[in-house]
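Researcher: Next sequence.
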Amino acid sequence: MLTAPSDPREHKLEGCSKKETDMRRIAGLALALLLILGAAVPAAARQNSKHDHHNSMLFATGQLGTALLAIDVERGTTKVIGPTGQPGSIALAITRNGRAAYSIASAVTGFPPGIDGANAQLARIDLATGAATLVGRPMGGNLSVMGMTFAPDGALYGAGDFDPQSPTFNSLYTIDVHTGLATRIGSLGAGVNETNYIMSFAWDSHGNLYGASMMALYRIHRNRTTNMATKVVDFVGSSLVMGIAIDEDGSFYAADLVGPPTLSTIYRVDVKTGFLTPLFNTGIAFVHNIAFKPEGDGQHDRD
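Model: Next structure:
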């Protein structure tokens, strides 16, 4: 590590003026060298100290969509930002500029008890307070949207239709952020059982979209209209994964949906083996979607 040379004035210089002059010249040369080297330090620091500007804060929905959470994956801490005011808001899609997030209020019938999924409606979430404000009108179709994400171009996507008997089971939809209405694109093709339903989405830094069911990780191909999901790996360590997120370094994280007394855990995901390494317990029941704020400039943001 480079350290600044000591100030010559801190030393008592003895002897002739020539020695004092030489000392000042040496100090001047050292300072010049430090300034030259200092110009090269930031690039090296960015390469070797990944966490200098690292975003370790996850936002998450918890307590069956009744609360917005802030989870620091480096410190292992969880903070309740505030109540959503809209029970069942379990999805979480943060806008590309990071100013707000969207969810679906009353998304799934009985989740929590008393919720009727037929009343599901898009909601905008204030990331500072957690408060959710309904947008547009009820989306209809009883789609049970639990996973949503904003694409780099600003389009809002969601996985919908939780009924395995339905011909449109487990499909990808676009959702209009003004009207709240959903338009089907096609089948995700991840499987025929409820355990294959895509619960959450995340983008990597290369623009690749991933989705997670309770038991597996998938790569999502938006250019297709059928069989859009290709399985990457089965999860090992939990069969209740409900949220995934990818940080700026490409590390995958997951959250499981667990109630009292165990409560939900945050994991690091090995995408080659599917192994889930527990990082810490959140201390919160029923954590669902998790998401980092995007690093994009938000120029395509529709919010």
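Model: The mean pLDDT is 84. Residues 16-48 form one domain.
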